[in-house]
Amino acid sequence: MAYHSHFNSEAAGRFQLLCGCPIVPLNTPGGSGVSAAARAADGAVEAIDPVDEALELYRPLSLFKTFDVRGPGDKLLVYLILFINSCLKRLAERRPPPSREEARTLLFSVAHDRFPMPSQAGFPLGSLMAQPASKEEEDSLRIYLRQCREESGRRLVERMYGGGEGAAPNRHWLAFAHRRFMDRAV
Questions:
Q1: pTM of this prediction?
Q2: H helix or E strand, kind and range, residue 148
């Protein structure tokens, strides 16, 4: 039994879709608590956002070689799981393991690396997401995915180094760095 995104059923009418991916508000620190690029049509803030959902489901889903995509929320979930996996690989290949601050800096730079978009070579979900209808749609999706990547990296560091500033990374998270969800990588 696989776990699926709870944004599948809500995405149809509540959130804007870009290339088949729902633009769900992110619970970010500071001001309003919601990212500027992703606001629900009705202005409501979700208790759990796609980044929290991906981090919660990462370890159980990383054991799967196949995944039945049931809706737009699953597309975003799969993308974030693949990104989290690439973050863990970057952290695991560092010897000795990076400190909390080094990990935060490394994952911030990974989030801001140039990444392929739907319809471009190297996009890991090429068959799942539609091509952008316009340059504006592509730019909006790139901004949203970059925000998701940045938040995923930030929250992953918080989960991995839960013990404080001098804590070592949680080896149970790093053990999943060598798993390949759906035999794909970002």
A1: 0.86
A2: helix 135-160
